[in-house]
Design brief:
about 170 residues; mainly alpha; 7 helices
Length: about 170
């Protein structure tokens, strides 16, 4: 089980991290680029669907085609944790070493997309809160996990429901 979790977790984490670096570079270097959260999370769901294949591989090759919901969920959760941890570590290195002013660039990008004075005021307040939070590395870690891990948990839940098989 450990080998399966590490392989699928590291592959998923690597693909998630590469995607994140590409998206951050596009946003960072093209201030006029209009970001799309739906597209970003859809891409994340597609990448995290590798959890399904990791659990299926574990079920078919190590458990002779039989797996309970609990075992499937545990395997998927561990794959999601490995992938999310890799994503967080890559973001920490990338953020602190290559784009330490990312919050300022991102803030100006988000503020340019506001369409009304009320929206602008609310967005400024939210961005200030995130700027303060990003001064503490612990919050950077927690916010980054909060970005990716819930999606991994949803994919794990769905995968476990689909893949469970009684003897």
């Amino acid at each position: 089980m450990k080998k399966n979790i590490l392989i699928f977790g590291l592959v998923t984490g690597a693909i998630l991290s590469i995607n994140m670096v590409i998206v951050v570079n596009v946003l960072y270097n093209n201030p006029d680029f209009e970001s799309n959260d739906f597209l970003g999370y859809s891409t994340m769901v597609v990448i995290l669907s590798l959890i399904y294949f990791g659990v299926r591989n574990y079920r078919n090759k190590q458990l002779n085609g039989v797996i309970s919901f609990g075992k499937a969920f545990k395997a998927g959760l561990l794959i999601a944790l490995v992938a999310s941890t890799m994503y967080v570590v890559v973001w920490l290195f990338y953020y602190y070493l290559f784009v330490p002013d990312f919050m300022e660039v991102y803030a100006s990008h988000v503020l340019e997309q506001c369409t009304s004075p009320d929206e602008l005021a609310a967005t400024k307040e939210e961005i200030e809160m995130f700027r303060e939070m990003y001064k503490n590395p612990l919050f950077v870690v927690l916010l980054t996990y909060a970005e990716v891990l819930p999606v991994g948990l949803i994919v794990t839940l769905i995968s476990s429901l689909i893949l469970k098989r009684k003897p």
